[in-house]
Design a protein that fits this description.
four-stranded antiparallel sheet; alpha+beta; 1 helix
């Protein structure tokens, strides 16, 4: 081998050096997006994490590009209040306050109240209540300076059934004292149909 530099040796060494080190940089600087055919660069040709947010055109991505889910945006302004709806029907129009002597003090839809025995009352309404929900509670009353007060007790109800048209309008109310014994006490009743 010769130890002299020749033009051919220098030119080939320089060409090799440029190809290995700077040639890629020169090619990248001279090749623009207009030099690349459409769809020539695919996902498999792009290194992982090579495309970052700053390299994506604003507004060019949609929810489907993220698998259909995106974080929620800021809360929007509250819309105008809508018009008021119509008034609803009363929860019940069948109710009453009954004294311990079976006197109807006040109420609506009750035709009659009778005593069946100590702590047992039969309340008759102006309509079929067989398929309705009835609740009663022991409670005092005060009207026009007279009334009754109670300090405890309980009430329970039992529909009379629908064996007859009259029975379908009746509910039996049982009142008991704090010891659980039958006792004639004032009560409040409500029927919800």
């Amino acid at each position: 081998m010769r130890s002299r530099f020749t033009y051919a040796n220098v030119a080939s060494s320089l060409a090799l050096f440029l190809a290995v080190s700077g040639g890629t940089a020169i090619a990248a600087a001279t090749i623009g997006s207009s030099d690349i055919k459409s769809h020539a660069v695919t996902g498999s040709k792009i290194a992982s994490n090579a495309v970052t947010g700053s390299k994506v055109k604003n507004g060019s991505l949609t929810a489907s590009d993220f698998g259909g889910s995106l974080p929620s945006g800021p809360q929007g302004a509250t819309g105008a209040t809508g018009a008021a709806g119509p008034a609803g029907a009363a929860a019940t129009n069948l109710w009453g306050v009954v004294g311990s002597n079976a006197k109807l003090i006040q109420g609506n839809g009750i035709v009659a109240v009778g005593v069946l025995g100590p702590g047992a009352y039969l309340v008759q309404f102006n309509q079929n209540v067989n398929n309705c929900s009835a609740q009663a509670t022991v409670g005092g009353w005060n009207q026009g300076g007279s009334g009754e007060s109670v300090t405890g007790g309980q009430a329970s109800v039992q529909p009379s059934g629908n064996a007859t048209a009259t029975a379908a309008t009746q509910i039996t109310v049982f009142t008991r004292d704090t010891g659980g014994g039958s006792s004639s006490l004032p009560f409040h009743i409500a029927v919800i149909c």
